[in-house]
């Protein structure tokens, strides 16, 4: 479904349901993929992480957006929480994202 939806479709989802996890994650991730406004991506991904604290891909996307904005200290706990969610078994997957999150953390020092 994500491949078919464009930015405007995700914006409409969020407008209809501001507390909807999929819309928030989808919009934030799509903005990130398309090189859009990183501050806006961070805003939506932060909400997504709050709505579903064990969704590992949200943590990864938020971490990437924060790093791209130069907010490395903010990115560290986000990526660490994503790794913890995946490795604790509380999330429904995300183990495959752990290596990338660990690599990002290493670049942050």
Account of the protein in words:
There is one protein chain. This protein is mainly α and 109 residues long. The protein is 72% helix and 0% strand. Helix 1 runs antiparallel to helix 2 (21-33) and helix 4 packs antiparallel against helix 5 (72-88). It is globular, with a radius of gyration of 13 Å.
Summary tags:
0% strand, mainly alpha, 109 residues, 72% helix
Topology:
Elements: H1 7-16, H2 21-33, H3 38-51, H4 56-68, H5 72-88, H6 98-108
In short:
Helices cover 72% and strands 0% of the residues.
Percent of residues in helices comes to over 70%
Look at the helices and sheets and give the structural class.
mainly alpha
**Strand tally, please?**
0
Contiguous uncertain segments of 5+ residues: none
- Secondary structure tally, helices: 6
Overall 3D geometry? globular
**Radius of gyration from CA coordinates:** 13 Å
SSE ordering: HHHHHH
Biggest sheet features:
none
Oligomer: single chain
Strand proportion, as a percent range, falls in under 5%
Ends apart, CA distance between termini:
36 Å
């Amino acid at each position: 479904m994500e491949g078919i939806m464009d930015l405007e479709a995700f914006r409409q989802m969020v407008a209809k349901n501001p507390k909807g996890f999929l819309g928030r994650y989808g919009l934030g991730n799509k903005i990130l993929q398309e090189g859009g406004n990183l501050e806006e991506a961070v805003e939506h991904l932060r909400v997504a992480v709050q709505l579903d604290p064990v969704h590992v891909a949200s943590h990864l996307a938020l971490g990437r957006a924060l790093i791209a904005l130069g907010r490395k200290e903010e990115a560290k706990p986000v990526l660490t929480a994503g790794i913890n969610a995946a490795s604790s078994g509380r999330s429904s997957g995300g183990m495959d994202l752990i290596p990338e999150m660990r690599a990002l953390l290493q670049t942050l020092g």
